[in-house]
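in:
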């Protein structure tokens, strides 16, 4: 039996904002030239508050920066319980049994 793909952090943040009656979150990518390369990150704005991602990424992984910013925003909004384990991050906040954490 095929298991449904877990929701992305971005989808979870959009849903949480909708539940709270907030405007939809808005993501902006930011870059920083570092030596011969450019590092990318993301800032999500929720109700006028900019919330940056924790990490910087290579350009091909900018979607990870958006996911990171969404996860941080959900933590700030109290929708998740602090930093997640590597397994929870990998599977989008699902516990090994398949239920939301």
């Amino acid at each position: 039996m095929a298991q449904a793909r877990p929701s992305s952090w971005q989808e979870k943040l959009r849903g949480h904002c909708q539940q709270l009656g907030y405007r939809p979150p808005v993501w902006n990518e930011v870059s920083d030239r570092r030596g011969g390369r450019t590092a990318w990150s993301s800032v999500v704005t929720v109700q006028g508050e900019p919330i940056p991602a924790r990490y910087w990424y290579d350009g091909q992984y900018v979607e990870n920066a958006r996911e990171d910013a969404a996860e941080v925003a959900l933590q700030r909004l109290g929708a998740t319980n602090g930093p997640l384990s590597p397994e929870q991050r990998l599977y989008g906040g699902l516990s090994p049994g398949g239920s939301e954490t």
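note: Strands lie at 26-34, 37-46, 49-52, 57-58.
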